[in-house]
Specification:
The structure holds two protein chains of two kinds. Chain A is an alpha/beta fold. Helices cover 42% and strands 19% of the residues of chain A. The chains are: A alpha/beta, B mainly alpha.
Chain lengths: 353, 310
């Protein structure tokens, strides 16, 4: 009896773990353009050319594809490319999500490489050292990882990052214009990488617009602790903040608190307007497809890596998406637009600490 | 800047935050106390909470009735408890390992259901704050203790109730005897299996309620893995609280208060690196645990499956 119990537990555990790790293919419903693009193909591809080989992409992500933040930004970008290229027959997307254990992620990366995918994306800076080990074993496979600038000098690794300080700056300009109490709060996960860039950019934008505004910053030390992020928002509001912003996937609870207290919210990574249409002013959204398309073109031309890319406002890899449901005054909108323009043409330079 | 900490706004903020943050710990850890008092260690609390979070949120979202959400979370938690009881009492499985299994089940299942049924993060309008007439007008104290939502009040009322049941009723006596000396209890006609089934299912129900307190009262949102280790801290709080409801309350409050203190420290710009600030609640908890560990003894039969000697 006791042996049976052990076996039962182990089988249960294993089945769950394996179940959780199984890669998922993007559902065809995510590519609604499939049928509409099909008739257009003969015009884009001359009959003399052989039919293009299906391009296969696999991506490993630390959180879920619908996290309204980092992982979703990558998934949405891939789906947009798929739609553009003519559906799953032309562009295959396979993903492993919730790979917060780096070891599991490394195994998934290796599996995808073994299966002969054209491009394997390790979407998380924590996967870097695993990739450094895996990539040399698969010289014919192209890998991409971010957010970083480091390709480890390998010919088959691309690096990508987001200049998230740019969108942070624009959000900061708007926030300083809209704040009435002169206090605002920022919630971040860990003081590093993409999050730190965004927060520093936001502070720079606020300071450039109104140096008298106080920006309180809170790093909660976790990418998943929704409860603590939410309590951090409450703390900011109690400290007098009437504008909040935050980065990473655990901020969803904080957005809820902002909505309850009716203070403004600025989003980043993905468009967060849907969570609180009344108080989200604008979101900086990553459009990774801009740099992914460059990578794909390079791969098809035979270059498998060795370069690094940055998504920014200029190349369209970052877009400030205003929430149409929020009535932003024309003056404030003009200020934001001129900040965007200034960053693009180089007349505004963002100094980071 | 340190002086900023001692203004009324900040002190009230710290205490009110701490009271709220402690709520899910209290439900889950009081439930776990019952289980451990009867000799069963349930490490699946986190999984039960996650499924409770999802059940409460989804039912509240689709039905528009928050109390149906609470009920759904409790039923889901109870069912998880029932399964745990079957595995540990009837099959006599190793408790720690089975608990981890149930945790992984809850983690995966809540994620799967979220993907299939919702697909994206949404919000609900959760339980509103209830201002207790008279008491909520007391300066300071009113805001800290008497301006919270119903599930927060419930968590604190649960503490004396649990103490009463464990120490002043026959049921409590049976639970304690099953956890201390199951053979003796059995020889006196107490059904060890039935008592353990009861405490594990009760623990699951309260863990489910802990989940509901997060998803439809405190945060009003569901996201994958949103408990983020809370359930494991709840298990640790049972040890910390020396298997006494009042001790659990003290531990939950200490941990939560230090956590809300570190939030304020950062907001006020007190120059402590954020990484150090975030560690504070954990470091302090370990220190207190080390300082007090010798004063208590775990229930003797904890983690030991009961097998009648014929």
């Amino acid at each position: 009896m006791k042996k049976f119990a052990w076996l039962f537990t182990i089988v249960l555990t294993l089945s769950l773990v394996l179940g959780a790790c199984a890669p998922k293919t993007a559902a065809p419903t995510t590519a609604p353009a499939q049928s509409t693009t099909a008739p257009a193909q003969p015009t884009t591809a001359p009959a003399t050319e052989p039919p293009a080989k299906k391009f296969r992409v696999a991506v490993v992500m630390p959180s879920a594809i619908n996290d309204l933040a980092f992982s979703q930004s990558m998934y949405d970008a891939l789906v947009r490319i798929q739609t553009e290229m003519g559906g799953p027959d032309k562009f295959e997307i396979v993903y492993s999500e919730n790979m917060f254990v780096v070891d599991d992620a490394a195994a998934a990366i290796r599996d995808y490489a073994t299966q002969g995918f054209d491009l394997v994306i390790a979407h998380g800076s924590q996967y870097g050292s695993s990739l450094q080990e895996i990539a040399p074993d698969f010289p014919a496979t192209s890998f991409a990882w971010g957010t970083t600038v480091d390709t480890f000098g390998q010919p088959n690794i691309f690096a990508y990052e987001a200049a998230s300080q740019e969108g942070g700056y624009v959000n900061g300009v708007l926030a300083a214009t809209l704040s009435q109490t002169g206090t605002m709060g920022v919630i971040g996960p860990i003081e590093t990488g993409d999050a730190k860039l965004y927060v520093d950019g936001f502070k720079a934008g606020v300071a450039a617009t109104n140096p008298n505004v106080t920006v309180n910053v809170n790093y909660i030390g976790s990418f998943s602790d929704v409860a603590l992020a939410s309590e951090a928002a409450t703390t900011h509001i109690a400290a007098g903040a009437d504008v909040l912003t935050g980065t990473a996937q655990m901020v969803v609870g904080a957005i809820g608190k902002a909505k309850e207290a009716n203070v403004l919210w600025f989003g980043t990574q993905s468009n967060q307007s849907s969570l609180a249409p009344t108080i989200v002013v604008a979101s900086q959204v990553y459009h990774w497809e801009v740099i992914l398309k460059e990578m794909i073109a390079l791969i098809q031309g035979g270059t498998l890596g060795g370069r690094s890319f940055a998504a920014n406002l200029k190349n369209g890899g970052e877009v400030i998406e205003f929430n149409p449901a929020y009535a932003l005054s024309a003056d404030a909108k003009a200020l934001a637009d001129s900040a965007i323009q200034g960053i693009i043409d180089g007349s505004i330079t963002i100094t980071l600490p | 800047m340190i002086a900023d900490l001692f203004t009324t706004t900040v002190l009230i903020g710290i205490l009110a935050s701490g009271i709220r943050l402690a709520t899910p710990y209290l439900y889950a850890a009081i439930g776990e106390t019952f289980g451990q008092k009867s000799g069963v260690l349930n490490l699946g609390v986190e999984g039960q909470m996650l499924l409770g979070c999802f059940a409460a949120f989804y039912v509240a979202l689709t039905s528009g009735n928050l109390w149906l959400g609470v009920l759904a979370a409790m039923i889901v938690g109870a069912l998880m408890g029932l399964a745990m009881a079957f595995v540990t009492v009837n099959l006599r499985a190793q408790q720690g390992i089975s608990g981890i299994g149930f945790y992984l089940f809850g983690l995966g299942m809540s994620d799967l259901l979220f993907q299939k049924l919702m697909g994206t993060v949404e919000t609900v309008k959760g339980f509103p704050k209830i201002y207790i007439p008279g008491l909520s007008d007391i300066p300071g104290l009113g805001e800290i203790f008497f301006s919270q939502n119903i599930l927060v009040y419930g968590a604190y009322l649960l503490v004396p109730l649990a103490w009463f049941v464990l120490n002043k009723t026959t049921l409590g006596l049976k639970i304690r005897s099953v956890g201390e000396n199951p053979d003796a209890a059995d020889s006196l006609g107490v059904s060890v299996a039935r008592i353990r089934y009861f405490t594990i299912i009760l623990g699951g129900t309260l863990s489910g309620l802990a989940g509901a307190s997060l998803s439809i009262a405190l945060l009003n949102v569901f996201q994958q893995n949103m408990t983020s280790g809370l359930g494991f801290i709840a298990v640790a709080l049972v040890y910390f609280g020396a298997w006494k409801p009042a001790g659990v309350l003290g531990g939950a409050l200490l941990f939560s208060m230090v956590n809300s203190l570190q939030l304020w420290i950062q907001v006020l710009g007190i120059p402590i690196p954020s990484d150090i600030a975030v560690m504070m609640p954990y470091v302090l908890t370990i220190l207190v645990l080390v300082a007090t560990v010798s004063r208590v003894r775990a229930p003797s039969a904890l983690t030991k499956p009961f097998e009648r000697e014929d």
